[in-house]
Model the fold of this input.
Amino acid sequence: MKILIQRVEYGKVYVNNKLVSQIDNGFLLFLGIEKEDENKIYKAIDKLMKIKIIEDEKGKFKYSLSEKPLPLLVISQITLIPDFKEPKPDFSNSPQKDLAEKIYELFIEKLKERGLKVEKGLFGEFMEIENKNLGPVSFFLVI
Done:
């Protein structure tokens, strides 16, 4: 499982030019799901909740999502996981679509159970993502 986390002033998801979901002042999470990730959901959520990625008034990373719950916009992102042994991306480590969607939905459900406001994209759809990155602040987690 790979998660690209971006601090955003806002994040919006469009499908077919229609707004699907949005957040303000939170984090945009791009979630790359691999074959063995069904067993990594709890570990990923625990890590995500504990890491100090929220700045204090001095601009220092001091708070975690468990201390300062900010909204999340979670987007499935298969292009985070390919292998590039060859020039063409190899997606052989991707699970079947049904399993990947199950992991994606469970990941979101477990974040909500932690008390976070979570919005999402539409799994498997072509999406247009609009956001204003702050900082820029981006983190990459590999679970």
Q: What stands out?
A: Residues 122 and 141 are 22 Å apart (CA to CA). Residues 97-113 form the longest helix (17 residues). The chain has a mean pLDDT of 96.
